[in-house]
Amino acid sequence: MVTTGLTHHTYPLSKLLYLSSTLALPHALTIFNQIPNPTIFLYNTLISSVLSSTNRKCETHLAFSLYERVLWDKTIRPNSHTYPSLFKACGSHLHGLALHAHVLKFLGLAYDDFVQTSLLNFYAKYGKLGVARRLFDQIRNPDLATWNSMLSAYGSGVTSEEEDTSVSMEALCLFTEMQKNPLVKPNEVTLVALVSACANLGALCQGIWAHVYVLKYNIKLNYYVGTALIDMYSKCGCLDLAYQVFDELPERDILCYNAMIGGFGIHGYGHKALQLFEKMKFQRLAPDDVTFVVTMCACSHVGLVDEGYKVFESINEDYGKEPKLEHFGCLIDLLGRAGRVQEAEEKLKGMPMKPNAILWRSLLGAARVHGNLQVGEIALKHLLELEPETSGNYVLLSNMYASINRWEDVKRVRKLMKDHGINKMPGSSLVEVNGAMHQFLIGDKTHPWSKRIYSKLAEVGKRLQQYGHKPRTKEVLFDIDEEEKEDALTYHSERLAIAFALVASDSTAPIRIIKNLRVCSDCHESTKLISMIYGRDIIVRDRIRFHHFKNGTCSCRDYW
């Protein structure tokens, strides 16, 4: 190139810089520094090449250093190809905001869709989904990559449990819009985002449609699509279909095993989860951090304390790793759920790292279930220091006081919440009927079928009484008379969802409900009876696990 004079031409130089940067970055920089007046095209090539390197942390500084040289060079200006790579490399929200300001300064409002998509991805990465959606809506003819960016943003940008449902709904609505464009056809990335949204919502019909689409158009069932389908079927209560997908995968990686072990866990099949864990090791796949978490959780859901403890100890003994915070969290939950609250507290205090709020909340939850008020008060004290604005912490302790009729203490906790401006997250339940999702809040009367729902609730209440059901009024956290407490329990969100399903769905179809909070013991008992009285399978996914109600029994065997 030197002897033929090609080093004076931008295009061959850009190819040389790209190749050199992939093989030996210092050599590429040496070449670049010999170029008398590098064009913005050469700067863009080198910045992009540098950021595609495996050593991202080090190369990010170099890329922004090159960008700084562009800003100092009065003979060139950044263009639309300068910014997309830099947005991907932004290490903080503030850096990205500064870069966005540069886009407006140097490109004005006339930048292309490529830059717009990069901005969209950046804001989604930092949980600014509203900004990301506005940027998406400004693109006149989004291509498949842009649609996928927004759909994936909805899948990964959730910042709280409260947002989870609404964001997943947005993803399904966006996909419906995408289908109206005949020029854009879904690919693997699209379907993973869609299936993930279906998993969050428990939207089985839409999830099945996505699976059929994969089969119909011969889309490769790779690790990512397979894992998403396993997770979706598990979270929609169809464990058999989840295992069928897992079993039919031509190859399985650690992600597939993690999804299937996790599926067995949340459905209460701890022994099957352990068998699959052993099978995975037999296949010479090394467990990762997530594997240990889902396996220990599976043990926790069914009280396999010794087995779960062995999994915890194997992290260090068999694999030479140090247990992480999340592994200690599983151990605390395992012990606490089994009633070994004192031992759980000792393990928490003896950890080599500082416990976070999740661990203290797990201990508080165990103390509440097993009535250990002393440990509960200690746990809440730490939680108020770590998360003074999280309503669930106050509610757990308030529940403990209410269960033993300490109403003054309940009022004190409620006053603390009020003083901090904290509101309790309302319970909500989703139920799928004829392919449509219906959401209910406690005491909800906004549904178009509200009159028929409440009429059915009254009928259900009478039938429950005939079968000897006595409402567990200790679940009501107000100092009111027993009759009022019974009414309050009747209008819990899952009761409304069940009543609607009994009215609106086929009498042979399973009723599938997703609840955002832990199901209360009274609703748990009444749902067992309803499944027997009306001959319906009722599948409830609460914040913790699945409950399969059939013929008056629950799959959790009252251990949850």
Structural summary, described in words:
This protein has 560 residues and is mainly alpha-helical. Among the domains are: 332-425, Serine Threonine Protein Phosphatase 5, Tetratricopeptide repeat, CATH 1.25.40; 429-554, no CATH class. 64% of the residues lie in helices and 5% in strands. The protein contains 28 helices and 6 strands. A 6-stranded mixed β-sheet has the order 2-1-3-4-5-6, with helices on one face. Strand 3 (511-515), helix 28 and strand 4 form a beta-alpha-beta unit. Helix 13 (223-235) packs parallel to helix 15. The longest helix has 19 residues, at 161-179.
Q: Give a count of the beta strands, DSSP E runs of length 2 or more.
A: 6
* Distinct helical segment count: 28
| Rounded average pLDDT | 87
Task: Please state the overall shape, judged from the principal axes of the Cα atoms.
Answer: globular
CA-to-CA gap between the ends?
Answer: 71 Å
Portion of residues in helices? 55-70%
Q: List unreliable stretches of 5+ residues.
A: 477-487
What structural category do the secondary elements indicate? Answer: mainly alpha
Largest sheet: 6 strands, mixed
Report strand %. Answer: 5-15%
User: Widest sheet: strand order?
Assistant: 2-1-3-4-5-6
- Based on CA atoms alone, the radius of gyration comes out at 28 Å
